[in-house]
């Protein structure tokens, strides 16, 4: 994982620490109870509008109502997180509702709603909610799709008065925004900046896919981002007309979930939305159109539109879809039974496609999925990534696997494996329903409204699934498979880097040729029982058990050097996280091993354990809840899996077996190589790709361990070299096993004793490895100018300053989190809100705890090439002012309060304790400094921020890295790509 991907989403400081509840003393209970004045007038407990016409059991935890003006609402009491409300206002209009001259208006209105409204002056809404603890992007947000626009607010620390006021303010934003000429002129450049940042190959490909697969339908030309011409031509009057036409009570659904009685919530919605009135009759929704086969098409193989998209540097992919008209269904139990049967059928086909790819077939990956898209089509979509240039063979093989599934029933063993995976997932949904966040529940209602279906409780899902167990037969699953591939028209599109690859006639001919059934992907092997697998070694109980000193976390030591942390909490039923940290992480690689580091996330886990290969692992995991994620951190390698107590012993076995007796199946390694070779050229096609390729390497002083290996290095990598490198890395360095969640402590210790306690003693890290630093470029090493081969109006600019690392600096790292967010808010205000120069500039801080170096404060903006110097000037101006004057108290409050509330409200998750205490089995600082987590943020002062800015941000110039289009002027720095 690259540095950019680690931090790009870190718009909140605690994203570096993960969602975090606080220490127990900060947990609160603030459930709002109903009074006689809270009785709603329009609640409909006996006739909920979302269940009308269906036999799906009503989820009585929801209360539904419908106001006389047409507004529908759904409310629910939920205390996860405690003291929070989640408000959604969904408008049943998106980009598909736009007229030709309005393309992009639905999304533009979304921006303008946050700009100014009846209760908020220009730019006041976001700061207001930040002061109340809601973070922009996470808690305060909006989305525009082709069919719906949804406004979102997740407000922490919600009292009766603050909740009521938030609903009032949000009502004013949505129903009475100030759509003035000045505001339109302010927001259009921001939307154009967003459009520019999303431009490039990915958007061109997506637009071509949409135009081809939905040809003749309204969706084909209705991307929510709009066009430059219509956005630049937007007037206040035209935007107001769009808002008045679609923002009407009849088109609105309000969802409110919070730590309050449903009567309170329903009364609040009614109070603030009942008076909403828009004159005139509602506009009818436009006809979305249906997929239609071309005249004279073969009814058994109705191939319609096909398209070839040439994008140099992009990975060759092919998608074909069997399209059926979208039909408004009666969302009843039988409809869902048929859907579940088709999901099992698709899972069987996907397993066969994967088996064939693993065996070294003509494609790297292929999948089948059914999806109802934007109330436009009901389609079965097949995606194929050829392993080389021979796309015809890849397509023929995938069609052959599908043809076999259509012609011959699957085995009962295949069906049973798929059914077992679904059953575990549905059981898990039931177990987790008690702790499902209010925000997720609110989103489920808006999604159900969008697709015109009802909602059901997890218990109902499980019951319906198990009620059709007798229908999971070879004959019925084959029938469901045939239904998946029965449609009105087949459409296809191929992405290729080579214009000589194919033409539309060749693609059409390949799809129209008879498919030859291939049975090679079938897997009828019997299930594997973990009890039959070889033991890790001789079981050994821990030699030491002691309290860690934080709550009831227990620390274990085994004679072989393995240490463990156990934390038992029963408030997350059926949820256990296992995290194994071992070895040296990036420190452990030698300078010539970059390729083996790069390939490991794909190849290492899939190469098997002991006698089990990939397919064996899948069969062993059927009916279990097991995970096997892998990542490389600065100072450790990490295995992680989400499981449950009844599967915990098997989860621990998988991880321990990977360390003790790793499998070395070469097929996953060769597959990872092929994928890396196919994808490498795509890095150069836009600024973000160049940063993903080069940023780690540049910020680590061109350390060859961090280079993204090019085709030469990948080609030279061998399966034997991979085995040699990872045999060393898996066997050396300390091991910490953390097991947090709903566990039986004594049973867990027994399982640890049979697995990690039974490992052979570890090889110690050599001193030169353990103490290997993460170097930042020397003073004077920049600026660095990189180029990309994409659109001429796209650029990216980075400026970074080194800080430090190590757990002894945890307190300082938290203060730097705050400073980076103050910096980020200023950059956002000045570059986006005032200048419209960049859509989402951000600043973040990283501070590795396992190494004493490598920390960074890092600012990035995707921006017009001509404005790159302006980004650097703005960043340096902000830095100089923070060092001279510090932030204002209000600026600091706007970043402290969202963090403080986030700490308090996420108080039930065991993942917090895991993220904060990982490494504590060897490093006592993790537990010691946990005690001050809350106060380190909440008691921060402007003077501390000023001192940190002086120490880290002005003590030396920031390293500037720019990514400009080829042929652009060199004003942003010297030509130093080094690639």
From TrEMBL:
Keyword annotations: Hydrolase, Metalloprotease, Protease, Signal, Zinc
InterPro entries (alphabetical): Metalloenz_LuxS/M16, Pept_M16_N, Peptidase_M16, Peptidase_M16_C
Residue stretches making up the Peptidase M16 N-terminal domain: 85-221
Keyword Oxidoreductase assigned: no
KW DNA repair (keyword) present: no
SUPFAM superfamilies xrefs: LuxS/MPP-like metallohydrolase
Stretch forming the signal peptide: 1-24
Domain Peptidase M16 C-terminal stretches: 235-420, 718-896
Protein family membership: Belongs to the peptidase M16 family.
Protein name per Swiss-Prot or TrEMBL: Insulinase family protein
Organism of origin: Erythrobacter westpacificensis
Lineage, uppermost ranks: Bacteria, Pseudomonadati, Pseudomonadota, Alphaproteobacteria, Sphingomonadales
């Amino acid at each position: 994982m690259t540095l950019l991907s680690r931090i790009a989403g870190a718009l909140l400081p605690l994203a570096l620490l993960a969602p975090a509840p606080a220490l127990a003393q900060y947990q609160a209970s603030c459930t709002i109870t109903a009074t006689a004045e809270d009785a709603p007038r329009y609640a409909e407990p006996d006739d909920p509008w979302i269940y009308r016409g269906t036999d799906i059991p009503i989820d009585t935890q929801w209360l539904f109502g419908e106001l006389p003006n047409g507004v529908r609402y759904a409310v629910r009491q939920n205390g996860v997180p405690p003291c929070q409300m989640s408000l959604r206002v969904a408008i049943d209009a998106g980009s598909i509702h736009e007229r030709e001259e309005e393309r992009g208006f639905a999304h533009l209105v979304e921006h303008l709603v946050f700009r100014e409204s009846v209760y908020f002056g220009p730019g006041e809404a976001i700061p207001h909610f930040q002061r109340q603890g809601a973070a922009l992007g996470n808690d305060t947000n909006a989305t525009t799709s082709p069919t719906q626009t949804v406004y979102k607010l997740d407000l922490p620390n919600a009292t009766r008065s603050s909740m009521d006021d938030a609903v009032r303010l949000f009502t004013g934003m949505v129903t009475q925004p100030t759509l003035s000429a000045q505001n339109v002129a302010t927001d259009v450049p921001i939307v154009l900046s967003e459009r520019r940042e999303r431009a490039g190959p990915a958007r061109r490909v997506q637009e071509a896919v949409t135009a081809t697969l939905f040809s003749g339908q309204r969706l084909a030309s209705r991307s929510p981002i709009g066009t430059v011409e219509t956005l630049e031509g937007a007037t206040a009057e035209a935007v107001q007309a769009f808002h008045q036409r679609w923002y009407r009570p009849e088109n609105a659904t309000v969802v409110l979930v919070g730590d309050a009685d449903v009567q309170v919530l329903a009364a609040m919605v009614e109070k603030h939305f009942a008076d909403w009135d828009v004159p005139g009759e509602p506009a009818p929704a436009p006809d979305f159109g249906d997929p239609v086969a071309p005249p004279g098409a073969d009814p058994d193989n109705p191939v319609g539109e096909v398209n070839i998209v040439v994008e140099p540097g992009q990975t060759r992919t092919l998608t074909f879809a069997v399209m059926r008209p979208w039909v408004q269904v009666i969302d009843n139990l039988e409809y869902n039974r048929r859907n579940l049967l088709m999901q099992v059928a698709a899972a069987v086909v996907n397993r066969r496609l994967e088996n064939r790819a693993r065996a070294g077939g003509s494609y790297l990956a292929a999948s089948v999925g059914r999806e109802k898209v934007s109330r436009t089509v009901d389609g079965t979509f097949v995606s194929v990534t050829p392993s080389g240039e021979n796309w015809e063979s890849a397509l023929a093989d995938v069609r052959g696997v599908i043809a076999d599934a259509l012609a011959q029933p699957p085995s009962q063993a295949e069906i049973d494996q798929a059914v077992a995976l679904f059953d575990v997932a549905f059981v898990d949904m039931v177990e987790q329903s008690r702790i499902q966040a209010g925000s997720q529940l609110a989103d489920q209602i808006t999604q159900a409204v969008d697709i015109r279906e009802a909602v059901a409780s997890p218990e109902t899902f499980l019951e319906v699934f198990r009620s059709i167990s007798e229908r999971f037969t070879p004959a019925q699953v084959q029938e469901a498979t045939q239904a998946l591939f029965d449609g009105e028209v087949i459409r296809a599109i191929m992405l290729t880097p080579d214009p000589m690859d194919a033409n539309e006639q060749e693609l059409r001919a390949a799809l129209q040729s008879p498919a030859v059934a291939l049975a090679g992907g079938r897997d009828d092997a019997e299930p594997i029982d973990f009890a039959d697998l070889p033991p890790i070694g001789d079981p050994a109980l821990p030699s030491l058990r002691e309290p860690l000193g934080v709550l009831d976390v227990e620390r274990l030591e085994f004679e072989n050097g393995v240490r463990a942390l156990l934390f038992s909490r029963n408030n997350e039923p059926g949820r256990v996280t296992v995290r194994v940290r071992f070895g040296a992480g990036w420190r452990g690689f030698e300078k010539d091993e970059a390729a083996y580091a790069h390939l490991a996330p794909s190849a290492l886990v899939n190469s098997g354990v002991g006698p089990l290969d990939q397919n064996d692992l899948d069969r062993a995991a059927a009916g279990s809840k097991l995970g096997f994620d892998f990542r490389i951190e600065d100072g450790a390698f990490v295995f992680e899996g989400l499981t449950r107590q009844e599967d915990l012993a098997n989860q621990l076995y998988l991880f321990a077996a990977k360390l003790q007796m790793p499998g070395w199946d070469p097929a996953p390694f060769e597959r990872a190589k092929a994928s890396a070779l196919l994808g490498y050229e795509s890095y150069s096609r836009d600024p973000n790709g160049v940063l993903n390729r080069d940023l780690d390497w540049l910020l680590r002083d061109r350390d060859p361990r961090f280079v993204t290996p090019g085709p030469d290095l990948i080609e030279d990598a061998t399966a034997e070299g991979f085995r040699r490198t990872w045999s060393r890395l898996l066997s050396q360095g300390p091991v910490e096993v953390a097991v947090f969640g709903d566990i039986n402590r004594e049973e867990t210790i027994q399982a640890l004793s049979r697995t990690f306690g039974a490992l052979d003693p570890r090889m110690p890290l050599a001193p030169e490895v353990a103490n290997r630093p993460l170097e930042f470029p020397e003073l004077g090493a920049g600026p660095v100018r990189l180029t990309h081969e994409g659109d001429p109006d796209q650029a990216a600019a980075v400026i970074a300053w080194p800080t430090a690392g190590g757990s002894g600096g945890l307190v300082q790292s938290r203060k730097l989190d705050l400073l980076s967010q103050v910096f980020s808010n200023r950059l956002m205000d000045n570059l986006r809100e005032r200048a419209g120069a960049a859509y989402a500039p951000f600043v973040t801080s990283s501070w590795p705890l396992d190494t004493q170096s490598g920390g960074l404060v890092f600012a990035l903006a995707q921006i017009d090439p001509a404005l790159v110097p302006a980004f650097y000037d703005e960043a340096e101006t902000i830095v100089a002012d923070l060092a001279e004057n510090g932030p204002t108290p209000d600026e600091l409050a706007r970043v402290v309060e969202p963090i403080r509330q986030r700490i308090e409200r996420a108080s039930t998750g065991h993942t917090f304790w895991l993220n904060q205490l990982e490494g504590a089995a060897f490093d006592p600082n993790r537990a010691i400094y946990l005690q001050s987590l809350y106060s380190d943020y909440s008691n921060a002062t402007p003077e501390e921020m000023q001192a940190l800015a002086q120490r880290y941000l002005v003590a030396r110039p920031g390293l500037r890295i720019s990514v400009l289009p080829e042929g652009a002027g060199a004003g942003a720095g010297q030509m130093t790509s080094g690639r």
